[in-house]
Amino acid sequence: MRIHDLQTPALLVEASDLDHNLATMAEALPGPRLRPHVKAHKCTALARRQATQGHRHFTCATVREMEGMAAAGLGEDLLLANEVLDTKRLAALDARVTVAVDSQATLGAAVAGGIREVLIDVNVGLPRCGCPPEQAGALADRARAAGLRVRGVMGYEGHLMIVEDRQKQAQGVADAMAELARAHADVGGEVISAGGTGSYDVNRVATEIQAGSYVLMDTAYDALGLPFRKALSVLATVISVSEAHSVADCGLKALGMDHGNPRIEGARVWFCSDEHVTFAPEAPVQPGERIRLWPAHVDPTLAYHERLHVVDGEQVLESWPIDLRGW
Amino acid sequence: MRIHDLQTPALLVEASDLDHNLATMAEALPGPRLRPHVKAHKCTALARRQATQGHRHFTCATVREMEGMAAAGLGEDLLLANEVLDTKRLAALDARVTVAVDSQATLGAAVAGGIREVLIDVNVGLPRCGCPPEQAGALADRARAAGLRVRGVMGYEGHLMIVEDRQKQAQGVADAMAELARAHADVGGEVISAGGTGSYDVNRVATEIQAGSYVLMDTAYDALGLPFRKALSVLATVISVSEAHSVADCGLKALGMDHGNPRIEGARVWFCSDEHVTFAPEAPVQPGERIRLWPAHVDPTLAYHERLHVVDGEQVLESWPIDLRGW
User: Fold this and answer.
1) Would the pTM of this model clear 0.90, i.e. be above it?
2) Does residue B248 sit in helix, strand or coil?
């Protein structure tokens, strides 16, 4: 099949860029030094490619991602790096399951759900989940007293992922990880799980990095000058041409918009509507012409699509279901 | 089933608010005076409720919406209010199919796809699809010469939907509709299709209004003081509580974000991540507690979810598949 035969909007990943990103990360963080985060792509076929690179332990954000990864035979070591109160679907999985806990309530839910292993989730500066570092040791003691195995700590420095001054970023990450190391000293265990695509090369404390976006990338991460290539684009068809602007059939329901508009090479994007992008091209385009959009945020973009098409130029090599969507 | 038994995040529509919105619109614009836009909800079960109110002619934005509506037996009169080059799936539908055309290319695609009826799409000020008003007559002549039946015109005044000063808005809509009326004089036909939830009561020219959001509403439309109630919310579970903020399990993949953050009553929303909302509640919340979020934009919110649960307080009455997603 050729790209021309795809219905639009269609998610494309360029095979050579994907291979480059997979190989670059496997060299930088081999084997269990990386625990790829599947929330970025929600696609077990792509997770299998990561496993082939030696990354066989995965990070998930939802119970559905955990279920899908286990069902796909990728359950060697799955971390649900998120707090969960409704644990009843997790115990049945054919997988090694570890969940993050940050409170007595989530610890109790883990016990009630038959979970056996946990990480203590520590707040390292991002105002989201995680207990204060100084409370991590006591929570680990309570977890062990409740019969759970505490594998270590996790702490996501998400507020430091997209910082263009990399020296400032490295200092921020070092400070955040000093907090995590302090908590780890109280908690014990062999795992310090942290980091992401923006900090994979400056986080010196984590025993494993939870990066996900590196494999597909987006315009926000691309601005950082990392060695990963923008592999993901959305193919669209020009449907209307006016004097000052043109319109293609890719809009708010095909793009994560929280980081702003997508980019189009050789054009200025004016705005997106539900099923349209209005843009001003430098050179005229014609109805029926295909264009590519570069999303600003990869994760919520993938979550809108049913399939990810792996392409080599004009050729469609494979079409992978985005099978971990929903909850 | 009770709300407590739903997995979160879950889309809820309050039955009494839904009924109020349906009845209010049916009274204001009875029968074919409203052509409900299904893009807002992408749900044939909800479209069937609109049909029961007397609105049996529908507006769609995608070929998939057209297919799903026809398959659900709701194809009495379907308008694809969008330009489409790939028409081959439309001719096979068991439905009366009308498509918008704004160029020789889309007119040619309609003929090639075996479409029989069209509306001439006219640009009335929103920089998106539509031909200039003064070119509409010539395009209609070419359409008729090609064997198409031209039912009339459409022109969406989308730039005037969310204007808080309703007097200013009414003047803007009147000006835009004067353009559409001018085009209609050249085009002929019995249909002048235009409008939306924001202009349903001030658009005096359209023979049919294409409103969709009225039935569920969102915080952006709610600010206008229209007689429709916010019927749609997202149920979430509090998963983490810290000193200054709390976190619930509803984020960027459960909410259309192009109009900004959702609202939570009695709380200030700080930010959303992929699967989290971080908020500062006025009164403390506990892990496991359920909260409701009010999305800022209804259409791209629905497109993330598989089901819409119709509730009466704590009771879940029905769960409708959101079956028109994708393309």
Assistant:
1) yes
2) strand
Residue A34 DSSP code = B
Q: Which two tokens stand for residue B205?
A: 């020219």
CB atoms within 10 A of CB B243: 6
DSSP summary character for residue B276: -
C-alpha to C-alpha distance for B323 and B114, rounded to whole angstroms: 26
Q: pLDDT, tens digit, for every residue of B254-287?
A: 999 999 999 999 999 999 999 999 999 999 999 9
**How near does any CA of chain B get to the CA of A188, in Å?**
22
Q: Answer yes or no: is the ipTM higher than 0.90.
A: yes
Find tokens 């860029």 and name the residue: A17
Q: Report how far apart, in Å, the C-alpha atoms of A132 and of each of A9, A78, A98, B222 are.
A: 44, 24, 20, 39
- A contact test, residue of B239, B279, B304 with most A CBs within 10 A: B239
Q: What CATH number matches the domain at A16-215, 3.60.21.10, 3.20.20.10, 3.40.190.10, 3.30.160.20?
A: 3.20.20.10
CA B325 to chain A, closest CA, distance in angstroms equals: 9
DSSP secondary structure, B174-207, as one string:
HHHHHHHHHHHHHH-SSEEEE--TTTTTT--S-S
**Which architecture, in CATH terms, is B3-11+228-321?**
Beta Barrel (2.40)
Write out chain B residues lying below 8 Å of A127, CB-based. 242, 244-245, 270, 278
Instruction: Suggest the residue from A242, A279, A304, A308 to mutate for an interface test with chain B (most B CBs closer than 10 A).
Output: A242
